[in-house]
Amino acid sequence: MKASLIVHGGAWDIPPELIEAHRSGCRAALLEGWEILHSGGHALDAVEAAIRVMEDSPALNAGTGSVLNAEGQVELDASIMEGAGLQAGAVAAVQTIKNPITLARRVLESEYIFIVGEGAVLFARGAGIEECSSEELVVERELRLWEAQRSETAPAVRGADGAVRSDTVGAVAMDHQGNIAAGNSTGGRPFKHPGRVGDSPLIGCGIYADNGLGGAACTGQGEGIIRVALAHSAVQLLKDGKPVQEAALLAVQLLQEKVDGRGGLIMVDRHGNVGYAFSTPTMAYAYLREDMEEPVVGI
Ligand code: ASP
């Protein structure tokens, strides 16, 4: 089987000063995950490794550099799924974990699927995952945006198209054995109500993977994406025989037509073909397949 990997760094109206960081973050994540796939590693390992790189990038809204909630705190959500046995793991509203995708991976390996808040941090301790202070995840840019939002002078909490200014990072991979995996990690919406959870950690909404069909990872307005179970809907379009790029485009259309939602998604089908689409002004993405010489990186 020909391996393939696609990553996204969020669908929204990325401001000019953050474009380059989104490109380089996606590229670095792609190459990290690719190293694993290329040397015969598992799709799950590639997805986790790629997402960890983007979580560690202060420019992207996941892990370090995440947006702040209405109380000025980070609250992180992440999920990961594999398509051989439909195993999945997810965490939400965690505040002191540097790489929530690795915690989601540990949950996938456990008897549970979804663990939230303090319980997820307790689970992390038990799994030997190091905690950090929540302050370590906060960057100056987000603090300033939060302060502006609090005093109602926020510049661009909504982009030109009305899309909420945010980001999620995600990855979908197929390895040499034909295993498909998908993952997402996010700080969610800026100034969100404490405890608000979007689509990103919800299986079937933010991500889905099935070796017989393909995988998808979504980004954008979580409240809309949840209502159309976007990742599962997109993968079902593959079952209906749609080529992967058409399936991605139709999924974005579905989001818009059904619930007037904006967002984007990345996909891989069971042959390793990749697809992506977005209805926001921009979405950062990068992909590579075994039969390509160079990665494609785009906004
Ligand atoms: N989907 C994420 C959420 O609603 C945000 C995003 O991808 O922009 O939390």
Write the layout of secondary structure elements.
Layout: E1 4-12, H1 16-38, H2 43-56, E2 76-82, E3 88-94, H3 100-108, E4 114-116, H4 117-126, H5 140-150, E5 169-174, E6 180-186, E7 207-210, E8 214-220, H6 222-227, H7 230-239, H8 244-259, E9 263-269, E10 274-278, E11 282-289, E12 296-298
Parallel strand pairs: 3-4
Antiparallel strand pairs: 1-5, 1-11, 2-3, 2-6, 5-6, 7-8, 8-9, 9-10, 11-12
Helix pairs in contact: 1-2, 2-3, 7-8
Commentary on this structure:
By secondary structure, this protein is α+β, with helices and mostly antiparallel strands. The protein has one domain: (Glycosyl)asparaginase (Glutamine Phosphoribosylpyrophosphate, subunit 1, domain 1). The chain contains eight helices and twelve strands. Strand 7 and strand 8 form a beta hairpin. Helix 2 runs antiparallel to helix 3 (100-108) and helix 7 (230-239) packs across helix 8 (244-259). It is globular, with a radius of gyration of 17 Å. The two termini are 28 Å apart. Mean pLDDT is 94; it is low at 158-163.
